[in-house]
Amino acid sequence: MNDKEIILKLENISKTFYGTHALTNVNFEVRKGEIHALLGENGAGKSTLLNILSGAFPSDSGDIYLCGKKINIKTPLEAKKLGINKVSQELQLIPELSVGQNICLGSEPMSKLLKTIHWSKLHQQANRILSMLGADFESRDPVSGLSTAQMQIVEIAKALKEKSVVLALDEPTSSLTFVEIERLFKILKELRNSGTAIIYVTHRLDEVFEIADRVTVLRDGKYMGTFNVKEVSKSFLIKLMVGREIAEEIRPTLKKNIGEVILEVRDVPSKGNFKASFYLRKGEILGFAGLVGAGRTELIRKIFGADFRKGGIIFLRNKKIKIKSPRDAVRNGIAFLPEDRKRQGFVPLLTNCSNICLPQLPSLSLFGIMRRNKMAKRAFEVINALRIVPPDIEKPTRDLSGGNQQKVVLGKWLSPKYQIMIFDEPTRGIDVGAKAEIHKLMHDLASEGRSIIMISSELSEILLMSDRIIVMREGKIMGELMREEASEEKLLKLAMGVA
Ligand SMILES: Nc1ncnc2c1ncn2[C@@H]1O[C@H](COP(=O)(O)OP(=O)(O)OP(=O)(O)O)[C@@H](O)[C@H]1O
Ligand SMILES: [Mg+2]
């Protein structure tokens, strides 16, 4: 086997969406048995390239060669038949079906005699892949009850079930924590060693150095080059992606004024029959760390009123408050950025302007009539502040790249009305530059005296941003660390429950 053999070649690929040049003459080659990282800012064209490759839509021009033969992929099914499989950036599962049905969709094992689906075999097959990925749920579980991270694991399992010549993964780890990521990496390395060509999209640059052999960078839909990972540095890649020098991380140096307790949560029922109690101070960023399934989102959603809560008391500025629905929370000045932006964060068909202004419609309308100028002004402020690309207030949010959608969702809550902000994975899927901007924004919000609860699956983000860290494991608060005493090792030990 010649390991330099080129399995996949994309030549001069271009794609335009209503005047937006998503890709311009992009070239891209993947070798047999390599993990090839594909990098670029939000909106650089990574998903577009993978969508063309996987038959989601055609390119405007350009050619694709698989094993030296020119191919013409018209549908996802055709791509699959050629051995091209993809883990999508956005979750595309059918919630009404079980995990196993989703994983085996379209390739269900049939019983020979009866010509019906062989259910026990189906679940067996699915469970085998799930256990490789270390999933804490089973094939027969309904997808509707899974968390975002768990759904991401199902998406990965779906692609791993097929035998791939080319396996493309579009930000597969954006909701996962290190334990799941390590398992995935182990599987990917095995696949690489057996000859699969793997394309890996991520915004977590450390992952590139951990797993990839080569890396290709896109900027504004243009091909910037391909490199051996061993021969480049992180700052070189960032510069190539962004086109300018940026500080990769802001280390908040400013000494903040952390004030009195503003929110207190007492005995709120948590996963696994535990009760959770904690407090949040004025001007504080309180990080919530834990592995997938730790119950962080579940707890926070109950506090915000998004899910039913039985028992527990919430105090706002020492006064007991009732939160029965998100409306109650919003009325009390609490904002919530959910982790699953597509299903809970924005209305897909509405324009950026409408989505950004949604929570403030009462103050932007007069006698029930929306004041369009005021709305447009507000939307532009947010678009500029967060550098949303394209800076178009009339574009439906659905048509933005994943990371830019996330910024729209974040932008909804920037009004000073919200003194307590709950961010569930605020930088999920956000590129390095924008991530630094969002971190700075969070830091500024806290310096202004707002209080932030941040759930993050990225340990480095937790350590960088939090003034104090609560670590959860399977519903239980395992401990609390102040910024000064926190370290990756201490967090991991608490999260995994090892003394
Ligand atoms: N269906 C669509 N309709 C209109 N414009 C689109 C559509 N899909 C993508 N675009 C535009 O094409 C460009 C490239 O988007 P793409 O999703 O490929 O970016 P990306 O590199 O995957 O970004 P991210 O890191 O945010 O996922 C963006 O400007 C985006 O707004
Ligand atoms: Mg994308």
Quick gist of this model?
The protein folds into 3 domains: 6-242, Rossmann fold, CATH 3.40.50.300; 261-346 and 412-496, P-loop containing nucleotide triphosphate hydrolases (Rossmann fold, 3-Layer(aba) Sandwich); 348-395, no CATH class. The chain has helices at residues 46-53, 76-81, 99-103, 119-132, 148-161, 178-193, 205-211, 234-242, 296-304, 326-331, 341-345, 352-357, 361-364, 372-386, 402-411, 432-447, 459-465, 488-496; strands at residues 6-17, 20-31, 35-39, 61-66, 69-71, 84-87, 166-170, 197-201, 214-219, 222-228, 261-270, 274-281, 285-289, 313-316, 319-321, 334-337, 365-366, 369-370, 420-424, 451-455, 468-473, 476-482.
Model description:
With 499 residues, this protein is α/β, with parallel strands linked by helices. It folds into three domains: 6-242, 3-Layer(aba) Sandwich (Rossmann fold), CATH 3.40.50.300; 261-346 and 412-496, 3-Layer(aba) Sandwich (Rossmann fold); 348-395, no CATH class. It has helices at residues 46-53, 76-81, 99-103, 119-132, 148-161, 178-193, 205-211, 234-242, 296-304, 326-331, 341-345, 352-357, 361-364, 372-386, 402-411, 432-447, 459-465, 488-496; strands at residues 6-17, 20-31, 35-39, 61-66, 69-71, 84-87, 166-170, 197-201, 214-219, 222-228, 261-270, 274-281, 285-289, 313-316, 319-321, 334-337, 365-366, 369-370, 420-424, 451-455, 468-473, 476-482. Strands 6-7-8-3-9-10 form a six-stranded mixed sheet, sandwiched between helices. Strands 16-19-20-13-21-22 form a six-stranded mixed sheet, sandwiched between helices. It has a four-stranded antiparallel sheet with strand order 2-1-4-5, with helices on one face. Helix 6 links the parallel strand 7 and strand 8 (197-201). The termini are far apart. The mean pLDDT is 90. The site of magnesium ion (MG) has 6 residues, from helix 1.
